[in-house]
Specification:
This is Integral membrane protein. Keywords: Membrane, Transmembrane, Transmembrane helix. With about 180 residues, the protein is mainly α. It has one domain (about 1-170). The chain has helices spanning about 1-30, 35-95, 100-115, 125-145, 155-170, 175-180. The chain starts with a helix and ends with a helix.
């Protein structure tokens, strides 16, 4: 991540130097001079580029962590979808009651749907938390469906799914003030 910060600092320094050079050119000319207007326009253009670049700095700094979160989220959800498919298959292989499918099919469908989520800059840490919490929920589902722990833990699994769903819901669309604009 140090190289990302270094690149940003170098680009920022270049833009600042360009603004400084344009300012120096503007100061060389009198306001009534024709060259003043040209140099002033270049100064305004340079400042605009600097301001636009400064707006993108937070996203640029967060990009390496976002990419890491994206990999964690993608492989967590894919892995848990595969485990869900295995649990469904075990219902048939171990000749368990088909009622277990009422619990396992929604779990499998939820994990498959989670495989296709986008990980943006704003919510990448929430999505990463949801992916890690998903492992706990999947472990509970496996232990419950294989009758290792009591069926009462279904309540904990449902609460875990609510936690995971809360972490993976796109919070940027939830603001009603932004929707009106």
């Amino acid at each position: 991540m140090g190289s990302t910060e270094q690149q940003i600092e170098e680009q920022l320094a270049q833009l600042q130097q360009k603004v400084g050079a344009c300012r120096a050119e503007v100061l060389k000319h009198d306001v009534d001079d024709d060259r003043f207007a040209v140099e002033y326009a270049r100064l305004v253009n340079s400042i605009s580029k600097l301001v636009e670049f400064e707006k993108t700095i937070p996203e640029r700094l967060a990009e390496p962590e976002r990419r890491r979160s994206e990999r964690i989220v993608m492989w967590s959800w894919r892995g848990q979808a595969a485990i869900g498919a295995v649990l469904i298959a075990l219902v048939f292989v171990l000749d368990r009651s088909a009622w277990w499918l009422v619990l396992l099919v929604p779990h499998f469908a939820g994990t498959v749907a989670g495989c296709f989520q986008k990980v943006g800059v704003e919510q990448h840490s929430d999505r990463r938390f949801g992916a890690v919490a998903l492992h706990v929920v999947a472990l509970l589902m496996a232990l419950i469906s294989l009758s290792v722990i009591s069926r009462w833990f279904i309540i904990a699994a449902v609460l875990g799914w609510m936690l995971v769903a809360g972490a993976t819901v796109d919070s940027t669309d939830a603001d009603p003030k932004e929707a009106r604009r």
